[in-house]
Model the fold of this input.
Amino acid sequence: MKLSKSINIFLEWCKNEKNYSIHTISSYQNALSDLKKYFIEEFGEEPNIDLIDTEDIRPFLGWLHDKSQSKNSLRLKISSVKSFFKFLRKREFIEKNPANSVFTPKKEKKLPSFLQKHEVQNLIDLFQNDDPISARNLALIELLYSSGLRISEALSIKTNDILKQSDSVKIVGKGKKQRIVPLGKKANLAIQKYLQLRPQIAVKGYSELFITKTGKPLDASGAWKFVNRSMSFVSNAPKKSPHVLRHSFATHLLDNGADINSVSEMLGHSSISTTQIYTHLSVNKLKEAYKNAHPRA
Done:
């Protein structure tokens, strides 16, 4: 059976028997159309499916790469080809699956957005802590950048979670795991100033540190809106959110030589591999260090 015919049978099966979405079927169709083009370009003909072996399929990845396709696109297309040949084997159109041992690229990780150090300072300079809400906003910005908290963690802090004597804050993170995180001097000052003004808007029954002007707990939506609006004045970063301050915290610490294990612990990551993405952001620092230190640089 020719490749084209088997592709049509597979797509019909996807549509009529599996009831896949139009998007999924289109994705399979595009990938298998590329596979057919690859065979015609590289071998000069459309092959019979029972003559295709693993060594015929492996160069397909390089062929796609030469077409300037993204890593995620390569991954999806190879995955589609694997599904196609798995179907052919299951239906006994072929005796063995030639795509079984074909390498599938790992999913491409997007590097997190972060602010430059001067942008963080410009952001902080926007706030005057002379009223409860402005003081609250400054304290939250300082805390997110100082301690690298998730917004959910910051908003769950109670007033008695601020540990003045040790300049730290008690956090309840993912999976209800507790950790103690250092609190920067400037963040501590901003929080103490806010605590002085907080009684002006506080109402009984709410012990959350960050509250609204009506005394109720500040929610993630409200925090996101004011952080996003404030960042738009100081940065052209594509993303403007509280999480960007967490990314900035990690990146700046690693840029300044902090130990990755310590940063991982402060971020509350369960695995150090989660933290390692930030080391890619500091590649220029690594190059600079290499250039200054290596005798053959």
About this structure: The CA atoms of residues 75 and 104 lie 6 Å apart. The first helix runs from residue 3 to 17. The first strand starts at residue 162 and ends at 163.
